[in-house]
Write a structure and sequence with these properties.
Blueprint: E1 2-5, E2 19-28, E3 31-40, H1 41-50, H2 55-60, E4 63-68, H3 72-86, E5 101-105, E6 113-116, E7 124-129, H4 132-146, H5 159-162, H6 179-197, H7 203-216, H8 220-246, E8 251-252, E9 256-259, E10 262-268, E11 271-274, E12 288-289, H9 295-307
Length: 308
Amino acid sequence: MIHIEISEFKDLPFDTLPKGWGFYALFSQEGYLYAGYTPKLAATLRQMQQRDNCRDLVARATGLEYEQTSDGFAALVKYKSFVAAHAPVYQYQINTWAEYVYLAVDAHRFPFVSIQEQTNDDWQYLGPFTSRFFLVDVIDTFSRILKLPFCETGSFPCEKFDRQLCRGWCLALAPAEESSQVQDLKKLEVLLKETFMHPQNGILEMIQHERNKYFDDLEFARADLLDDEIRLLSEYRDWLNFLYMAKALNFDSEEFTITSGQLARVRIQDKDLHFPVDNPEYRENEYLALPLNMVDEARIIYDHFRER
């Protein structure tokens, strides 16, 4: 464990901190304040320095301890063991997931596709996702490819319909429209589920095929334009696969126990450490939605089993 003492948080040696997975803890003369795990220690601490809800923590911290680990799972084990042993005073006051968001879809409610911070309503929820900007880019990409709704105003129809960038699904919600438009909403429901909820929907392969066609025709500039979309949709598919598996991650061995995507027990030096496990009741529309505070841990565990 590396130990660094400082007079102010800004004195931390950000530029020399290690890269890759690790565990860290901030402390003061009174004891440990906060602990965490991250693959980007410098970036995590810089973000903490800028967040309003970390202001008191940053002001009180007089030092940093950190330890590099072989992977995210080892960092998670170190973190949960440390928190159980030391109970840092700010540990449950600072929510690292506070800015995570959910994708919400509903073919019968304007604006059909939205980004939300909770799952208390009746939309079909997916997530959470760790970046609002990533989710905006995903929705925008699907919208451009398939002319799906991405309504950015509170009124409809909007200029996207006038510019033929959208098929005008919102017109089915107008009282003057008859059953032919209601049928369109049933079609939209299928499209939204196929697009946002099915990992193997063929859209990514379609773009890859188009990209390869441009490349084979020596149209390199046009091929390059599709590379960002391919990376974006590949990442979305990967996250969607994770959401399908997260709640079903259960495993028990002599070394550790995984329950519903959470680390429930680990054996360290011939001693078992047990950790509390959340067992929330999920509604049908939360089939692909995890609680905000569970997603980081579940993702590390998912990656650990996938890599092994």
